[in-house]
Amino acid sequence: MTSYETWVADRFAALTAEDGWLNLTDRVEIPPGPQRLGRAADNDLVISVGPDHLGVLTATPQQATLRVDGREFPFLAQGGNPMVRVSGLLLELHTVEGQRGLRVRDLGLPRDIALTLFPFDPAWVITARWVTLATPQAQMVDQKGAGPTEVTLTHRAHFTHAGQDVTLLVTHWKAGKPMFVIRDATAGSETYAASRFLMAEPEGETILLDFNRAHNPPCAFTDFAICPLPPRENRLAFAIRAGERKLE
């Protein structure tokens, strides 16, 4: 695991990157067939930035292209979802519950942000038991910005806090690592009300939970993101004054 200082620097760099969450202006669902895309009202897909008539978007399960003034711009995966840069915009394809959508980012928007974190507290670096479920379990998870979605539970983490047994469920995985979606007693007053995310690294039968790295979900920065909400088990009655605080 990288040092805490490196994690903070990487976190800031990811947020302020051109494909981060600070310059996201639109998210629209893509119907089947070619779609005229642009800011004018007579387009099939109307967005809030860019030219009045940007081009024609064609997205199939195999590939996607944007035709602009007779020239084809292909969407290419760049370590994540397929994207294309055109006319000062970064367009990204993504899929939610089988429905393809288009995220639009304005590369001309400022991407400055002042993150506020609690002081690092070594007491919130916890080694928990890492348990693999005997049988994977399907569970519905509510989302901010979309309807409920079904996830498959395969693991959970167990630890003790102030004499209380705590079980956290892993509902999502990111880059091969388990991601816990949590909420604690600071939610709404000191931290983002909906949730925070915590990435962790298992090692054998244990997993290191460094709550100093608990961070705000994309929905804390933009209304155009979709974010899972914590399951009942991950809504903690005690306060975790570690990690990112809510935005001022």
Outline of the structure:
It contains one helix and 19 strands. The chain has two domains: 23-106, Tumour Suppressor Smad4; 115-234, no CATH class. With 248 residues, the protein is mainly beta.
Number of strands: 19
State the low-pLDDT regions, or none: none
| Structural class designation | mainly beta
How many structural domains are formed by the residues? 2
Cα end-to-end separation? 29 Å
Q: Main beta sheet, described?
A: 6 strands, antiparallel
Describe this structure in words.
The protein is built from 1 helix and 19 strands. It is mostly beta strands and about 250 residues long. The strands form 4 sheets. Strands 11, 12, 13, 17, 18 and 19 form a 6-stranded antiparallel sheet that branches. The longest helix has 13 residues, at about 5-15. It is elongated and about 65 Å long. It starts with a helix and ends in a 20-residue tail after the last strand. The model has no long low-confidence stretch (mean pLDDT about 95).
Keywords:
248 residues; mainly beta; Tumour Suppressor Smad4; five-stranded antiparallel β-sheet; 19 strands
Itemize the secondary structure elements and their pairings:
Blueprint: H1 4-16, E1 24-29, E2 35-38, E3 45-46, E4 55-59, E5 64-68, E6 71-74, E7 76-77, E8 82-86, E9 89-96, E10 99-106, E11 125-144, E12 146-161, E13 164-169, E14 172-174, E15 177-182, E16 196-199, E17 201-203, E18 206-210, E19 227-228
